[in-house]
Amino acid sequence: MLEALTIPPVPEGLAARIAARIDAKTKPPGSLGRIEDLAIALGLAQRRDDPEADPAELMIFAADHGIVAEGVSAWPAEVTAQMVLNFLGGGAAANVFARAAGVGVQVIDAGVASDLPVAPGLVRAGIRRGTRNAAAEDALSPAEVEAALEFGAALARDAAARGVRVIALGEMGIGNTSTAALLAHAVEGLPLAPLAGPGAGLDAPGVTRKIAILERAAARRPGRLAPLDALAAFGGFEIAAMAGALIGAASAGVAVLVDGYISTAAAMVALAARPEARASCLFAHRSHEPGHRLMLAHLGVDPLLDLDMRLGEGTGALLAVPIVRAAARMLAEMATFESAGVSGRGGA
């Protein structure tokens, strides 16, 4: 799947053309700061001079992680399924932020271990209920990795066919900060201990225990791993599906708003496999989770927001949507000096 999807190159001179359009607007050059950069980035992501930010859609990928059995999380595994029901009921922070931003929400069971009822609006991957325990064995088989990638890519391409122009990546999965740390370590070679933070509320002794468990898991498959091998070794289904969604979105000319720590791990995996998808990524915010800062620094990314958030669910990406919309509308609607009859800056 990763090789089969063609990701179009960024057209030559596109950034310069968009920058020239921005400079012709009724304002001093550069006076809108990073909004100008964002408008260019959105155009590059969509491979077009006239990018759009609507409609936008949040995809929340949910899955469970077998490594939770080792005690890496302060929360029990069944919370994943409970939160899926909360998403479906519209009561989670992501739902509230999505309503505030006017963004549609798709709830996706990428590999939840607990029973979930048949529910309107719930999309199911149907691959496996949760991963195996990565501290003891490979979390996923190669076939399961491929299925999860293809599932995510198909969802993104379907969204593009429905006219979605921006996909925000969100997730839910008890234990997934452990998996994200293992993936960043395996794929990019980042040191493991600084990647392992408190997640959803571990105290200091809990973090120390978590690091020891992750070091044991990493020792099973030492050294740098290829992206698909890392997903097989450590999981998880929601991360693999998000990686597939990013690649699928890039192939369809849809911009991807990468949320926080877990979504960035998915982006790392996707970009290691398909580096040409990098232009499709807009990084929404800097999570308070320590490992996320390390990831962003490694990628050379300065995200749009830094609000000390660490919830996940796509909440940071949702808060960035209005800023992306403003950048797109500035490019599309703001008058030029010529159209407004405003005198431009003269020479000296």
UniProtKB/TrEMBL annotation:
Swiss-Prot/TrEMBL GO biological process terms: cobalamin biosynthetic process
Pfam family, one: DBI_PRT
Molecular function via GO: nicotinate-nucleotide-dimethylbenzimidazole phosphoribosyltransferase activity
EC number(s) stated in the UniProt entry for this protein: 2.4.2.21
Keyword NADP: no
Record's keyword terms, sorted: Cobalamin biosynthesis, Glycosyltransferase, Transferase
The protein's annotated pathway: Nucleoside biosynthesis; alpha-ribazole biosynthesis; alpha-ribazole from 5,6-dimethylbenzimidazole: step 1/2
InterPro entries reported in the protein's UniProt record: Nict_dMeBzImd_PRibTrfase, Nict_dMeBzImd_PRibTrfase_bact, Nict_dMeBzImd_PRibTrfase_N, Nict_dMeBzImd_PRibTrfase_sf
Enzyme class (EC, first level): transferase
Catalytic activity: 5,6-dimethylbenzimidazole + nicotinate beta-D-ribonucleotide = alpha-ribazole 5'-phosphate + nicotinate + H(+)
Protein's UniProt keywords contain ATP-binding: no
Catalytic site: E313 (proton acceptor)
Family, similarity comment: Belongs to the CobT family.
Protein task: Catalyzes the synthesis of alpha-ribazole-5'-phosphate from nicotinate mononucleotide (NAMN) and 5,6-dimethylbenzimidazole (DMB).
Protein name in the entry: Nicotinate-nucleotide--dimethylbenzimidazole phosphoribosyltransferase
The organism of origin for this protein: Thermohalobaculum xanthum
